[in-house]
């Protein structure tokens, strides 16, 4: 099926078009520049920016894909989780398009879409791949608002949460630590880049929830065996900077960035691989904005190889928020025979990851 996907959950206005598991186009407009001076996304500004950007982004996507709205079989839109006002712009636009064209509308979970984008094929015409997915699929979702390890028995209707962060998301930790280090916003790409010039072993930052009382044993699992915590790490970085300053020494920003990144990536990859091994998971999809991180890709890749797990990593531009991931999940729903959502649904800013799409 030819599916048009619309994304507006945060500061990216995205329109993507797929045919089955083949990507035709992925057009994204970001209001990031307007938020930089505030050090974070301002919801009201993001909503207004979606309103400005939506129609031009849609027109560009249709033009690039060489299709018209008439050609499209269905429309998919992010209906949560995300910023309520921002979601509303994309959802309103999608409902209007659906009513005007008579095309069915799918209200989609943004987080599952981050993962489902990994099912797009890099080669054209390999559209049957979706039917050959492993039965016991895992997904490691690492984004600005979430850090989760999922078991996916079916990407369209059976997603189970195995572990998650109990406080900050990994992307949030990157953004907060970047602020402490004076690297500006968004912090993830800045830390990723600077860390390459630093020594990750110069400082040992804490790995949250790795003590025996949280991990338990293989037989008797602890209460947080597959969970993460990043707020202590953020505090440890702040203390470390204060100590250098109190001694009147220059703060080794690159070393701290590298050591912080190593702590985050170490604990994310080790717990994710453990959860997969202990659930017989053989294939893992990596997704979310932090999946763009070079060290996370590298270390998770190495550990998966050692554990005999196949890691599927999407291209960089499909990791951060975009419309193609929404279209990709929409196409999976249609191919699985799942019905559309109608137009009566409302955006849900805290939609749980277990809700893949909204039932009519
Ligand atoms: P969610 O998907 O949970 O609703 P979101 O949509 O805001 O949240 P994403 O767009 O998925 O988040 O990801 C944005 C986050 O990814 C930001 O926190 C950003 O700092 C982080 N990020 C982007 N690139 C990198 C990178 N190379 N290394 C680390 N973090 C990165
Ligand atoms: Mg964003
Ligand atoms: Fe996202």
UniProtKB/TrEMBL annotation:
CDD domains: ASKHA_NBD_TsaD_bac. Residues 23-327 form the Gcp-like domain. Binds 1 Fe(2+) ion per subunit. Its cofactor is Fe(2+). InterPro entries: Gcp-like_dom, KAE1/TsaD, TsaD. GO terms for molecular function: tRNA N(6)-L-threonylcarbamoyladenine synthase activity. HAMAP family: TsaD (MF_01445). Belongs to the KAE1 / TsaD family. Required for the formation of a threonylcarbamoyl group on adenosine at position 37 (t(6)A37) in tRNAs that read codons beginning with adenine. Is involved in the transfer of the threonylcarbamoyl moiety of threonylcarbamoyl-AMP (TC-AMP) to the N6 group of A37, together with TsaE and TsaB. TsaD likely plays a direct catalytic role in this reaction. PANTHER family: TRNA N6-ADENOSINE THREONYLCARBAMOYLTRANSFERASE, TRNA N6-ADENOSINE THREONYLCARBAMOYLTRANSFERASE, MITOCHONDRIAL. This is tRNA N6-adenosine threonylcarbamoyltransferase. It comes from Paenarthrobacter aromaticivorans.
